[in-house]
Design a protein that fits this description.
mainly alpha, two-stranded antiparallel ribbon, 2 strands
Length: about 270
């Protein structure tokens, strides 16, 4: 039905706040692309700019190092593997999540907030499952690919696909942590905002993550190769710990740098008047 003249005038006078970045959770913003090389190099410089993130990451690095060291040939049975996996999952939530949030906040020069929110955020997309699934894929690849059984190949591929899907879903959690602390907003709003920030750039973030964790991947391969050599095997665990510490810190710095770069350069969509 046709509108009245009064309604038409009201629509013509209606305005939209294009300059308010926080309005409608940035749903009207244009997110800029960020340079992968610049992100990696700049975040590498951030890694050595402060000691607080390194200290905060010690617990997570140690948990990851012990888990990697144990599941690659040092456990007696499948039951032991299951117990270690459950413990790793729990510790990732209650210990690593709040410490990681503190590390990212320090890199981004943001005042850390509640420790409970990062725990809940890590459960949103089951964050602790990501490293578990990747390591399971590595185990299948290293132990069964030589024999080329079809079922093992299919299982490892399924696990790897699940890991990548879950990984991409989890990438926005890293950005959400900074948004949650900086803007003092709730968990759901922070996740919505981080989805907007990472929209169309998840593959770039995934590539950054792969490059950052390459040293840890090489350390895992070294553990597998030298685990039967008693002399060298004694030094593998501390090596994995040090490499984990570096990789985790570099990733947290990369996430914080990406958040800062996107936050500063996001632009509002230009709307025409009715």
């Amino acid at each position: 039905m046709p509108i009245t003249e009064a309604e038409r005038n009201k629509l013509k006078k209606h305005t939209f706040s294009e300059d308010k970045k926080d309005e409608f959770r940035w749903t009207h913003g244009v997110v800029p692309e960020f340079d992968i090389g610049k992100t990696l190099s700049s975040s590498l410089g951030m890694v050595f700019s402060s000691t607080y993130p390194w200290i905060a990451n010690i617990a997570g690095s140690l948990i990851l190092a012990v888990y990697v060291f144990e599941i690659f040939g040092h456990l007696a049975s499948l039951a032991d593997l299951l117990i270690y996996t459950i413990l790793f999952f729990i510790l990732e939530i209650i210990v690593v999540s709040p410490l990681s949030a503190f590390s990212k906040a320090k890199f981004a020069n943001i005042e850390p907030g509640s420790a409970a929110k990062p725990m809940l955020m890590s459960l949103t997309y089951l964050s602790p499952l990501v490293p578990i699934l990747y390591l399971v894929g590595l185990i299948f690849a290293m132990r069964y690919f030589v024999l080329l059984p079809v079922i093992s190949i299919l299982i490892s591929l399924v696990v790897l696909i699940l890991a990548v899907i879950l990984h991409i879903a989890n990438l926005n959690v890293s950005l959400a942590t900074d948004a949650m602390y900086e803007k003092k907003i709730d968990r759901n709003t922070a996740l919505s905002r981080s989805w907007m920030m990472i929209s169309g750039q998840s593959l770039s973030m995934l590539l950054i993550n792969v490059v950052v964790f390459l040293p840890l991947i090489f350390a895992v391969f070294a553990e597998v190769v030298f685990r039967n050599n008693t002399t060298i095997a004694l030094y593998i665990l501390p090596v994995i710990f040090v490499v984990s510490e570096f990789c985790l810190s570099w990733w947290h710095a990369s996430a914080s740098y990406s958040y800062e770069a996107i936050s500063k350069n996001i632009k509002p969509i230009q709307y025409s008047r009715l």
